[in-house]
Amino acid sequence: MNLKILLPILVLLAAVGAAWAIMATKPQVVQQSAESTVPSVNVVRVQPQSLRINVMSQGVAMPREAIDLVAEVGGKVVQVHTAMVAGGFFAANELLLTIDTRDYDYAIVAAEAQLAEANRVLINEQAQVEQAQSEWQALGEGEPSALALRKPQLAEAQAKLKAAEADLAKAKLNRSRCELRAPFAGRVLSKQAGLGQYIPSGTVVARIYASDVAEIRLPIGTDQLAFLELPLGHAATKSGHWPAVTLRAELAGKSHSWQGRIVRSEAALDDNSGQLYLVAQVAEPFRVVPDRPPLLSGLFVQAEIEGVVRDGLFALPRTALNSLQQAKLVDSQQRLEIRQVDVLRLEADRVIVKAGLNPGEKVVVSELPVPVAGMKVNAVEVPHETVQ
Length: 388
Fold this sequence. Notes:
Blueprint: H1 2-24, E1 40-45, E2 49-52, E3 55-63, E4 66-70, E5 75-80, E6 89-90, E7 95-99, H2 102-139, H3 151-176, E8 179-181, E9 186-191, E10 198-199, E11 204-210, E12 213-220, E13 244-251, E14 254-265, E15 276-283, E16 300-305, E17 309-316, E18 326-330, E19 336-340, E20 342-346, E21 351-355, E22 362-364, E23 378-381
Parallel strand pairs: 1-23
Antiparallel strand pairs: 1-22, 2-17, 3-12, 3-16, 4-11, 5-7, 5-10, 6-9, 7-8, 9-11, 12-15, 13-14, 13-16, 14-15, 17-21, 18-19, 18-22, 20-21
Helix pairs in contact: 2-3
């Protein structure tokens, strides 16, 4: 009986002891100070600068001149230059293809014979004219007629001599056209005629292009023309009137660049896009340069056109503005201010502000989840690393 009474009492005492232990060891609530809830933000001190506003575009490198090499006379191809293959290089006035000249050599000989005959007839006619004049002076009376002095016959002989000379010149011209020469230094894009092939007059034997200069058409929005100094509306007398341009492209797994210059603008805005096309030129695109490949025809390139310099601008990282083009600033009391600014242009790695900021102000460049005007912040000044 004593055990039955004592056991419940012991269980009750154990439960009370456990409850007291739990109450005694519960975690204490630590009161945090208001200072620890103030967020830290990175800021930069802004100063007005003189910035060059370059304009970005893109295009495809193309040769300055591309033509069809056409045979002006017909005949059998008897010689082809080793460069007459797709991609072959050739020099200016280099002989690329020769057509069989024998028929044209024979034509020259025949024309020379006709010229000799016409010259003989003319000499004979001149002698007869002199004889007719002598006979008239000795026997004739009054004013002699042109026929009596054989003037029509002399004029005919002179005309036939000129015609024979022209036939000879034409025969020699046709003979010279048997040799197809390059009008400029360049490369072969494609070949349509081979050794031993008969080609009629007017046949395209190859497609060639000049390699001295590469051209790139660059579309520019009309709003971007404000950042470029272009001699629009009149001819530029010096190349220095047009801006320089840097072309960049990925080739063989590496990034490469070429220097060029804008040389002209096209005559009208594009009908579809409303953009103006500027034409850039790169001299000697195939010149060998260490660690840089040639500017291949057909290569897509990014272009950075040298723009004008403007004063009083502020260059900030893209993170300095929100989608509403508002900047977050920190005042002397370490409180946040949200201000609308006037953006001149957004670029890939920076934003250029033309109004709305004052020299020396602190602009927040780090992320702030829920910015509220007037909230307390801890400003940490960082170096200004914006690209100039």
